[in-house]
């Protein structure tokens, strides 16, 4: 699951085609649900976008 | 250079290159299993030679093997057995311990023992006879009773009980005596930090981006190139007097053996271990690295490495010489030096084949090959035996051993010949000296610069400090002075490993020769804040409420109860959800679970359509977290009925209404009638209701208006009379469709003609 600090950040993430493919659903303005088994790919894609996501384990 | 990733012990190849420390349980089990394959009579003899009486049944080999192993598990009994070993046997057992490897190929052990001047066959024979060594289980049982054949074989691995190997004291060989130098000049010694720094850099790189492995255990091209192009990882060792091939591969194998990097559960991803590694191992790190280097088999001084997933790694004889050469140096007094020439000559005198390049080529073949190569002037020039011997010694002693800080080098004063001696760390690793003393403390060794580069003088660096810096500063250059760089990624990495901004600044301040520039503090704080823009939850708990009001009240109450007062760990999400990062924070006593959902399965049908065709009822016991987002695209939630609920423990049904406006919103977001039909099939199990289809029908820009007109209804006293009116030729042309038993439609323009026709039939019509 990805939580963005603001809706505009979530929009930015969804605008990235490679990342959007890994998203199962948008739960709210700021929360995106990642497809099962795609967590590593989603983190890698976030980093490619220049994001430095906090990883909560 | 080829960076090959291998792996530690795997189920397919147990403990092939494992360490005693990490695979003790496995090694013990494998050892017992190997013994249990022997005939009961052989096991009974082993027990007799150990002076123990077996309690197991006469033919129960498994029970006998278990008893033999149990004896080694007992520290007092194992110590007594070790005391009874002769010096040569101690050398053999010590080789397992020094290399922290419970498994040695028989040919490798023979090579090392012979280079130490020990009668290899006799030693191995004696240890096998007492069950102190065992032949690995992948050898045919017929081989097991002939130890001499075992020693000569390149196909056999020997196992040792980990307790026997790890507690063994070694007496390094002293006879025949090594000739020592009288005086040396130009002593060169390295601080042993370079391997630690470069391993730290590799840990950083794999922490920032783990590497993927192919099925053969090699790195994928992209990851291989990324590491190969990184000079800090793959550049030649600065602290070595002789270059070794494939420095990156060496680091990779060392990192795996000491546990600094590891494979994930799928065994397809090579990743950094936790930052706790640094705090748990910082004091012993130099010794761990040295022991790992002594026992490395998938990397060797001569050639490119093989992935250790490959069928069986035996390697070249030189890799088994590492501990043997250092043991000869350990037999000298701490102040004694020996020249490489004298060491080579000494080895040749006790074991002429000590420098053989391969186990595949027999010594006789090699010599004849050399002779023939000398004869052919046009053939490729091969090194003379003396050159090869010198190269072997240089690669091991002046290459790896110098870089690991185990050996110092010098020149013999009278002849200028290269000489070597063990350092304090070297003597400690070879178990002939105390732990090396701590180097002089040099607290202020960092210069943080406004451009976010940090210069570190290596005199101040220690393994614990290297570990701390590695978590948040990127190693960019390893030389006399070390360069690090602070980047957004490195700071994010530091926070990921559990550091705080305050802790990072404290390290830079405490060890800085002056306070860090304000630009550094600003950048670190900015990057730390930037990290909160996106949070990725590998796992989290979402708690759903019936309404936003209930959710908000829960956040308020739970946060107070939690006592943090900071709004965490309960994060409101959307309208009715709370996100809890740590499952342990979920107040399980305050919530009831109404449903469990596996999101890998297809979505469940949880929506019912009301007869009006536009009202959708959501069953909360079957719904999931996705349904709200799906419904919100084209429907609006109707106000709930929470106050009047019969059962407060049962979540209320929720109603959603599809209105033209809400549906238009969905269509604008890309919803199509086909997608809508698919959604209704998945979530409601029915087609979209006609009312909804009506709203969702495609509209044409020039659609003709639907026609509407006024119509009258003629009511007749009985059905029979209406049948007559419909049938009679005077009245039939002016009537429309029959609407019921006694009613028929009449269009407005035909009323007068109908009235006239009925008048002729004697019927008057009154229009109301």
Descriptive notes:
The complex is a heterodimer of chains A (57) and B (768). A 3-stranded antiparallel sheet of chain A has the order 1-3-2. Helix content of chain A is 39%, strand content 25%. Chain A is α+β, with helices and mostly antiparallel strands. Chain A has helices at 7-14, 17-20, 39-48; strands spanning 2-4, 23-26, 31-34, 54-56. Chain B has 768 residues and is an alpha+beta fold. Chain B has 31 helices and 24 strands. Chain B has a 4-stranded antiparallel sheet. A 4-stranded antiparallel sheet of chain B has the order 11-12-14-13, covered by helices on one side. In chain B, helix 2 packs parallel to helix 3 (61-73) and helix 16 crosses helix 19. The longest helix of chain B is centred in the middle third of the chain and has 19 residues, at 385-403. Chain B is elongated and about 150 Å long. Residues 1-22, 305-312, 370-380 and 642-646 of chain B have low confidence and may be disordered. Classes of the chains: A alpha+beta (57), B alpha+beta (768). The interface between A and B is medium-sized, with 32 and 37 residues. Strand 4 (54-56) of chain A pairs parallel with strand 15 (534-537) of chain B.
What's a concise summary of this model?
With 57 residues, chain A is of the alpha+beta class.
How do the strands and helices of this protein lay out in sequence?
The complex is a heterodimer of chains A (57) and B (768).
Chain A: E1 2-4, H1 7-14, H2 17-20, E2 23-26, E3 31-34, H3 39-48, E4 54-56
Antiparallel strand pairs in A: 1-3, 2-3
Chain B: H1 24-36, H2 40-50, H3 61-73, H4 75-83, H5 87-98, E1 103-105, H6 106-115, H7 120-129, E2 133-135, H8 147-152, E3 157-160, H9 162-166, E4 184-188, H10 193-208, E5 211-212, H11 221-228, H12 231-234, H13 247-258, E6 261-263, E7 269-272, H14 276-281, H15 285-294, H16 317-330, E8 338-339, H17 340-350, H18 363-375, H19 385-403, E9 407-412, E10 418-422, H20 424-429, E11 446-448, E12 453-457, H21 463-470, E13 474-478, E14 481-485, H22 488-496, H23 501-510, H24 518-531, E15 534-537, E16 541-544, H25 548-562, E17 570-573, E18 577-580, E19 607-609, E20 615-618, H26 625-632, E21 636-637, E22 654-657, H27 660-668, H28 673-683, H29 690-696, E23 711-715, H30 719-727, E24 743-747, H31 751-760
Antiparallel strand pairs in B: 1-3, 2-3, 4-9, 5-7, 6-7, 8-10, 9-10, 11-12, 12-14, 13-14, 16-18, 17-18, 19-20, 20-22, 21-22, 23-24
Helix pairs in contact in B: 1-3, 2-3, 6-16, 10-13, 10-21, 13-15, 16-19, 22-24
